[in-house]
Amino acid sequence: MSTPSQAEVRRSIAAAGTIVVKVGSSSLTQPSGHLDPAKLDALAAALAQVRLMGGRVVLVSSGAIAAGFGPLGFDSRPADVATQQATAAVGQGLLMARYETAFGRFGIRVGQILITAEDTIRATQYRNVQRTLDRLLDLGVVPIINENDSLASNEIRFGDNDRLSALIANLVRAEALVLLTDVDALYTAPPSQPGSRRVEYVPNVIDALGDITVSGSGSKVGTGGMVTKLEAARVAAVSGIPTVLTCASNAGPAMMGDPVGTVFAPVKARGSSRRLWIGFAAEPRGTIMVDAGAAAAIRGGRASLLAAGALEVHGNFSAGDPVWVDSEDGEHLARGLAGFDSEEIPQMLGRNTAQLKRFLGPEYAHPLVHRDNLVLV
Ligand SMILES: Nc1ncnc2c1ncn2[C@@H]1O[C@H](COP(=O)(O)OP(=O)(O)O)[C@@H](O)[C@H]1O
Ligand SMILES: N[C@@H](CCC(=O)OP(=O)(O)O)C(=O)O
């Protein structure tokens, strides 16, 4: 795939039939950190324009914690996880009520979907989310997605919604991803640093970022900063989806293809969506170490990981959890979803399928990681 020009990428964003827009807490709040209804209304108006012209729009919105801490009587975003989760439970409803009113002015319905990384890397849940989103879009609804903060476990939560938005863009087969934040573009260094310059176009987000310095959040409410936004642009790029990153007040022009913010070109034709979830959605819970033969087969790209080629298992995980597949010298070869709980695996190591069936029973005559659930790294 040859690298498109900046103008071509912007034109493809303007022409996108399905678009995923992610808005960060920092774009929905006042300097104090509390929700700013005027900002939320302006965003809804910009998205409504696209929807009313026939576009399919998915909004990934942060802001549950920001919406909840004022009503609970706190003067800043709580720092401990349990209070954040409780605050999100209060704030999420308030946030949705505001969106309902804001979109309702344009006769547009919204629908809430709360997602945990843990749910959606499982095949059945993944398909459920996909089916529901497709149906909502067919019905003309604007789905509004957030991480299910109140239930997400600390170890495998997305935390910010940047990566989640890129995975959702992939899942709904979007033609554009729009990342809205509190800066108007990606800069060559955090904008507070003197001499930092706006980057208009990133033709290859995989390898062209050597001269750009990024840091974490600059606001009281945001979490990931530019680091997670670049990660999102990278996930979108390898899914064949262009990204535009800008401030929320530029949402309308950005979606129209005007020269605002930073655009990132897709670097690859579209890949399989679920594999991307396995590759990016969650941190592995354990490791299966394999021998040289299995390593070669896995590197070849089309093999499942069989117990016969597995040497050791580390970590504590359940069937369906993400795991690393490592070579004997500790190199990460792939990520995959385990087919068995970690405590079932030691008795299976080194055994071929016939032996597994004979000694352990037919339910063990399966790969440790099926090739459909394996992504090379
Ligand atoms: N190279 C960079 N270019 C632009 N912004 C940067 C850069 N490095 C760090 N940042 C910071 O990233 C912040 C946006 O991230 P964040 O606060 O997490 O926003 P959000 O709530 O929208 O997710 C900006 O306000 C800026 O301070
Ligand atoms: N899910 C959380 C998102 C937390 C957050 O700050 O995210 P972001 O502003 O996108 O960096 C919430 O709704 O508060």
UniProtKB/TrEMBL annotation:
SMART domains referenced in this protein's UniProt entry, alphabetically: PUA (SM00359)
Keywords per UniProt: Amino-acid biosynthesis, ATP-binding, Cytoplasm, Kinase, Nucleotide-binding, Proline biosynthesis, Transferase
Gene Ontology CC terms: cytosol
Pathway it works in: Amino-acid biosynthesis; L-proline biosynthesis; L-glutamate 5-semialdehyde from L-glutamate: step 1/2
EC numbers on record: 2.7.2.11
Subcellular location field: Cytoplasm
Homology family: Belongs to the glutamate 5-kinase family.
Function: Catalyzes the transfer of a phosphate group to glutamate to form L-glutamate 5-phosphate.
Stated name of the protein: Glutamate 5-kinase
Record gene name: proB
